[in-house]
Amino acid sequence: MNKKIGFIGCGKMASAIIKGIKASSCGEKFEIKGAEVNCEIAELAQNKLGISVLTDNRMLVIDSDVIFIATKPNYVAQVLEEIKDELTDEKLIVSIAAGVSTEKIQKIIGTKRVIRVMPNTPALVQEGMSGVCKGEFATEEDAQFVINLLSGIGKVIEVEESQIDIVTAISGSGPAFFYQVIEDMARAGEKLGLDYEKSLLLATQTAAGSAKMVMNRGELSVQTLIDNVATKGGCTFVGIQTMKEENSAKLFSDVIEKTARKANELGK
Hints:
The chain is about 55% helix and about 15% strand. With about 270 residues, the chain is α/β, with parallel strands linked by helices. It folds into 2 domains: about 5-160, Rossmann fold; about 175-265, ProC C-terminal domain-like fold (Orthogonal Bundle), CATH 1.10.3730.10. Helix 6 links the parallel strand 7 and strand 8 (about 155-160). Helix 4 runs parallel beside helix 5 (about 100-110) and helix 7 crosses helix 12. The relative contact order is 0.10. Keywords: Amino-acid biosynthesis, Cytoplasm, NADP, Oxidoreductase, Proline biosynthesis. This is Pyrroline-5-carboxylate reductase. One of its GO terms (biological process) is L-proline biosynthetic process.
């Protein structure tokens, strides 16, 4: 019998995960349904994702083995209060709400099994990056199930919960940061006289290729990859020196630190 997975909330992040699961090699092993109070989002999910979408969270929970909490962080407590009486010990809760700790979830639902996940939207193209951590009562088997599920939509790491806000800042929010860098590079090329679309393609493919080089670097350090391109006295070297003069390291450090802090504040 296929395992039943229910998503409470069918917004962008839930849609990315659902699309990724359905497109992955293990997609046929699961029966996926959603629950959504926003009629427009519910209709979109039904039409684009091809899943049944209920309006009653409790009914979804009753009919699911695994329940993804995919609402905005400030609605999590309200949703948990609504469904807690339907949560039997056999059901696994998976929260993708940024900043909401497993401890906070367990204060409402008790000694139920909870896995906390920080995914990201590149799951839409099966290039996602997710961080997973266990709640107090979740088992290693629970964590491994979620890791295997999300492995169909990208890469997954398991971390301590104290580190999950860092994961949020780097990979959860990270796509937007990389989009911004790509956009800025493309606009810089346009400013110098190159057509924007051509400039955007140059920046995009260079980002994709560079990421692949890092992923396949073997024992080489990232610094070695930089040095291999930035020959002393050359044009790339001048660009790297400019980045150092402008203290790009501090810029990105501040971006990650402030984002992680905000992620932590969201659940309070």
